[in-house]
Amino acid sequence: MDNHFNVVIVGAGAAGTAVANDITKQQPSLTVAIIEPSELHYYQPAFTLIGGGVFKFKNAVKNQSGLLPASVRWIKDYVTTFSPEKNSVTVKSNTSYAYDYLIVCPGLQVDYEKIKGLKETLGQNNVCCNYSPEHVEYTWQTIQKITSGNALFTQPPMPIKCAGAPQKIMYLAADHFKKNGNLDKVNVEFFNAGPGMFGVPFFAKALEKVVAGYGIKTHFTTNLVEIDGPAKKATFQIKDSSGNTELAERYFDMIHVTPPQSAPDFIKECPLSNETGWLDVNPETLQHTKYSNVFGLGDVIGTTNAKTAAAVRKQVPVVVDNILNLAGQNQLSAKYTGYGSCPLTTSLSTVILAEFSYGGEVTPSFPLLNPRKNRYVWWLVKRYGLPWLYWRIMLKGKRVDLPSKAKYADKFLAP
Q1: Which helix (H) or strand (E) holds 165?
Q2: Does 234 score more than 60 pLDDT?
Q3: DSSP states along 374-410
């Protein structure tokens, strides 16, 4: 079998599957291979809703085989070595595949082991994590059991997949406690390794009001480092303004843990990564900074945008068009602006639709609506519209785009 392809794609998550469908639509004559070991494909943006009891896990998972174009060769294996000087990649079975163009999008890895004791207790002792497909349903099972005591929610240092997710589940839990008349008996606390509620100040102000409405206590520059499930004890490292650290212990009745995250180890160790281990690409063209026939997108790239499916949706056409530009010896005209979207579930019926681009610039897609207002319509979009958009439009490589513009936010930017 010929092991040379016009395009080799590494990873078949949201980015890899969408880019495979898009590029075969734009240029059906290309030979394309995708390297992905997993048989299952998860709609990860729904994991918050699963943990909050309003979405079924079975509706967030599909067989990968049904999502790829028939013309694409699926290589079910793990990449072990990149050889960009030779235009080839090698997989675990020791087979090498040559390419004209390489698209790298294997996502990121969740580093459970970086929190001492987490792997041993996750999914029991009321220790939850929506980032784990195996344990996301346990979050809702746990929330339903809590009628009093301490409910703790943690967020590690950035970058992570969907920076709003650690607090989104907290609001859904708090609203559940409220609806059941238990909020005054449950002490909800948020422990964030970062300095504030959200990286974009415009939305942080709105979230501070949400927190106050639920009576949630917040702790910043406070990072979870160890957990003892049987003892229901969490240990945090607290950093002061001078950089000094101390440890503090808190007991919990439930804890939702967001583990640290990083680029996959095989990316960190390859010649395509930057000094922090992420894929080294130009933030606008998404072309590798050293190897011109290598592109990247999705969670693995070392850019400053939010790592969300909405970012992938904007990145896919940029990568595809720029590869076709390069193949036609044209300028790389497609540009990615850093757009990301985070539908912040602030209750079991409301969402703040946070949309922003590089530098934290607020760039809404809807010109007449205040972007930091809680709305039921955004809840309906999050619950019903976005899953449909993901499975039926984005993954299939269909291009449907709403322009997101900073000028739409101008009249709402006043404090």
Answers
A1: helix 165-179
A2: yes
A3: -BHHHHHIIIIIHHHIIIIIITTT--------GGGGG
Instruction: Check 105, 128, 270, 342 and give the catalytic one.
Output: 342
The pLDDT tens digits for 368-383 are 899 999 999 999 999 9
CA distance 372 to 88: 46
Cβ atoms within 10 Å, residue 332? 18
Structure tokens belonging to residue 318: 């940029």
> Is there a catalytic annotation at residue 270?
no
Measured between alpha carbons, how far is 220 from 240 in angstroms, rounded to an integer? 10
The catalytic position among 105, 128, 129, 162 is 162
Residues in the chain: 415
Q: How far is CA 286 from CA 165, 185, 254, 300, 321, in A?
A: 25, 49, 41, 11, 11
The separation between the first and the last C-alpha atoms of the chain, rounded to the nearest angstrom, is: 62
| Residue 360 in this model has a pLDDT that exceeds 60 | yes
Q: How far apart are CA 414 and CA 216, in angstroms?
A: 26
Residue 129 annotated among the catalytic residues of the structure: no
Full-model pTM: 0.96
Residue 86 has pLDDT above 60, yes or no: yes
Three-state secondary-structure class, residue 96: strand
φ, ψ (nearest 5 deg) of residue 389: -60, -40
Residues 6+ apart with CB under 8 A from 212: none
Q: Residue 28 burial by CB count (10 A; 0-12/13-18/19+): exposed, middle or buried?
A: exposed
User: Sign of the CA dihedral 272, 274, 278, 282?
Assistant: negative
How would you classify residue 145: left for phi > 0, otherwise alpha for psi between -120 and 50, otherwise beta?
A: alpha
Least Cα distance to 163 among 195, 134, 186, 122 occurs for 195
Quote the CA–CA distance of 54 and 178 in Å, as a whole number: 16
Going by the DSSP 8-state scheme, the letter that residue 133 receives in this structure is T
- Phi and psi based region of residue 375 (left: phi greater than 0; alpha: psi -120 to 50; beta: remaining): beta
Q: What digits encode the pLDDT tens for the residues 372-413?
A: 999 999 999 999 999 999 999 999 999 988 888 889 888 888
Angstrom distance (rounded) from CA 44 to CA 64? 14
Q: Which residues contact 388 (CB under 8 A, 6 or more apart)?
A: none
